[in-house]
Design brief:
about 0% strand
Length: about 180
């Protein structure tokens, strides 16, 4: 069940990343055209940056599922098969701990229960917590930054799901991890 959901989620993340990459390309093209004709749209730069952030987090999470993240393999290459598998299990445990930490820090940052206790009233929430996450506005776009920062929840969830899958299904790891798989 976890394996299938992790696979589904990774495919969804990659599709979202691809759509965001296409959006970034179109925004950059729009930016070039508008600047060339002397009508610069400054919000395009900021939106392209936010799309790139979202794309990166989606792709990074999917890479955990597929176990093809960028890695320095100097140590792993020097180990025999059993030691390498143990090292990969340690990496899986560290990634799972990181996922739990990300969820914890997202919870502490967004404070969803405090927001609910404030009756979803942002001003009351800010007064009680001195947390302004829900009211900070982007520089050139007329949206709140909380919409940009929501990617952290998606990343934390994907990292949790994929690292849990990797812990529960270690046999799914690539056979050698040394480039001979």
């Amino acid at each position: 069940m976890i394996r299938r959901f992790s696979t589904f989620w990774a495919e969804l993340e990659l599709k979202c990343a691809a759509l965001l990459a296409a959006g970034i390309t179109l925004l950059i093209l729009l930016n070039v055209i508008t600047r060339t004709i002397g009508i610069a749209l400054f919000w395009v730069d900021e939106l392209a940056i936010y799309l790139m952030i979202w794309m990166t987090f989606f792709a990074a999470s999917a890479a955990i599922h597929h176990k093809n993240s960028v890695a320095v393999t100097l140590l792993a290459d020097a180990l025999d098969y059993k030691q390498r598998r143990l090292l990969m299990r340690c990496v899986d445990v560290i990634l799972f701990a990181m996922a739990l930490g990300m969820i914890y820090f997202c919870w502490r940052w967004f404070l969803p229960l405090d927001l609910l206790q404030a009756g979803l009233d942002i001003e009351v929430f800010q007064g009680e917590t001195f947390n302004f996450i829900y009211s900070e506005i982007t520089n050139t776009l007329p949206i709140r930054k909380v919409w940009v920062w929501l990617i952290m929840w998606f990343f934390a969830f994907g990292l949790f799901l994929h690292s849990l899958n990797n812990l529960l299904h270690p046999a799914d790891q690539h056979a050698d991890q040394s480039g001979t798989s």
